[in-house]
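Reply to dn_fold:

You asked what the input looked like. This is it:
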Amino acid sequence: MQEDTVDIGAYEFDGSTLVTGKEHIPSLLIYPNPVQKGSSLYVDLSGLRTQQLIIRDVRGKLVKTLILDGEQQMVDVGALSSGSYLVLSVNDRNDYKAFKLVVE
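and this is what came back:
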C-alpha cells in the first residue's frame, strides 16, 4: 500500500544548501549581517536563478527593490538608517525566502 504525501516543495537545510528529493539546490547567502551603516551588503547567488530582493522596514514600508543576476553582487545599503529590516528574496519561479537584516 502506497502512502499519499503532499510535496509543498519547501525544504531547508541549516547550511548553504536546500535539498529537494534527488537534487541539491544552493541557497542564497546575504552577508555581512549585521552590516555597518554606510557600507555594502553582498549577495551570493551561486547556482541560483535571477533573484528579486525586496527590502522592507519593520513597519512593512517598501525601502528598496533590486533585480540580481550573476554569481555575487554588491548591494549598496548606505541610504538605510540603523535598525532592523526584512529582506525577501524571490526567484523567477516565485520561490521565496525571508531574512532579517540589521543595519548598525
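The chain has one domain: 27-103.
Hope that clears it up.
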